[in-house]
Recover the amino acids of this structure.
């Protein structure tokens, strides 16, 4: 197999197509359907996806919940502004964080948030310049964070989010992500209920999305790119639903690249998903053989990103880039608050 270069996954995206705000109606976004085998495309509205799901299919959703992890504070001694982004809980009230500006956050630095209802001390500088910070507060940390924290929106979204819940899926359950599994933002409770009523199994897995999801690929040879580790969990119930679909010859349809990476990480070489929890650094790019996933519901991703490489592994780079060119011509909305793509094996409508 020839060397894969980062530039093989480049496309030119007009800035005005980057969605800055979520649609009022989650399921009213546009849906580009891509046949993974032929490259054929069709255009629909997202809620129409139910027509293309078959009884017996298993839809896999990531039920992680985004922490309002961006905290704006001041240095206790000077009053200088400082921003802290929570990355990973190390133990109890000690977190690994990203601090801006970093030079103001040497070990021993004390930071105050919300007029003193939350305080912090920098303990250490760790890998990549991240800071270990210990927090002190009254009450429950998650409640304090919910009051003071802001959603850690991706750097390409410059508008302020009016409603925090619009950067959460309607089925978000377990706190731990620094970014939303954005393909899931298109689902409403009503649409999920209709999908279940049609005889489609819904399996919930958890993968806590790290900020590495926004980290650009720097190496020109993509095999030199190192994926950041992310925690995932698959319950017995979810594993059983996924394995049952595969054993019955039905499809496993992952909602988002995070759900895809979870089931592929949790599966053995025989394609059987095992329940449990672990950390994964799986990097999926063209040439990868999928063990579990058959189809993928996803958003439109950044040029040269690991995410567009994953989609290309499923449908082929040429098909994916051609579909992206079509989406750009048709003025689809891109990235986290943008429109959706269904990479599928069939455009046949499935009657109830």
């Amino acid at each position: 197999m020839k060397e894969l270069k980062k530039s093989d996954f480049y496309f030119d995206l007009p800035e005005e197509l980057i969605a800055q705000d979520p649609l009022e109606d989650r399921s009213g976004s546009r849906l580009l359907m891509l046949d993974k085998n032929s490259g054929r495309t069709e255009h629909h509205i997202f809620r129409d996806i139910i027509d293309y799901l078959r009884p017996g299919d298993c839809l896999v959703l990531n039920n992680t919940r985004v922490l309002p992890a961006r905290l704006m504070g001041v240095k206790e001694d000077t009053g200088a502004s400082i921003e802290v982004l929570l990355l990973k809980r190390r133990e109890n009230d000690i977190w690994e964080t990203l601090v801006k500006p970093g030079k103001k956050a040497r070990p021993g630095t004390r930071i105050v948030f919300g007029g003193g209802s939350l305080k912090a001390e920098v303990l250490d500088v760790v890998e990549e310049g991240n800071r270990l910070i210990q927090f002190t507060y009254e009450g429950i940390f998650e409640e304090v964070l919910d009051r003071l924290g802001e959603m850690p929106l991706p750097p390409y979204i410059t508008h302020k989010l009016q409603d925090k819940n619009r950067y959460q899926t309607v089925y978000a359950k377990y706190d731990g992500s620094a970014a939303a599994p954005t393909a899931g933002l298109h689902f409403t409770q009503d649409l999920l209920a209709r999908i279940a009523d049609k005889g489609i199994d819904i399996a919930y897995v958890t993968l806590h999305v790290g900020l590495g999801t926004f980290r650009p690929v720097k190496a020109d040879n993509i095999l030199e790119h190192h994926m950041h580790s992310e925690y995932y969990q698959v319950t017995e119930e979810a594993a059983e639903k996924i394995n049952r679909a595969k054993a019955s010859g039905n499809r496993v349809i992952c909602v988002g690249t995070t759900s895809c990476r979870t089931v592929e990480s949790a599966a053995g070489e025989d394609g059987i998903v095992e329940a449990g929890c672990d950390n994964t650094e799986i990097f999926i790019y063209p040439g990868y053989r999928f063990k579990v996933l058959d189809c993928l519901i996803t958003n439109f991703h950044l040029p040269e990103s690991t995410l567009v490489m994953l989609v290309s592994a499923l449908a082929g780079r040429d098909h994916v880039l051609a579909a992206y060119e079509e989406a750009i011509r048709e003025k689809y909305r891109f990235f986290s608050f943008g429109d959706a793509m269904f990479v599928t094996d069939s455009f046949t409508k499935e009657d109830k």
Observations:
- The chain has a mean pLDDT of 95.
- The chain has six helices and 17 strands.
- The chain has two domains: 6-66+163-344, 70-148.
- Residues 15 and 135 are 39 Å apart (CA to CA).
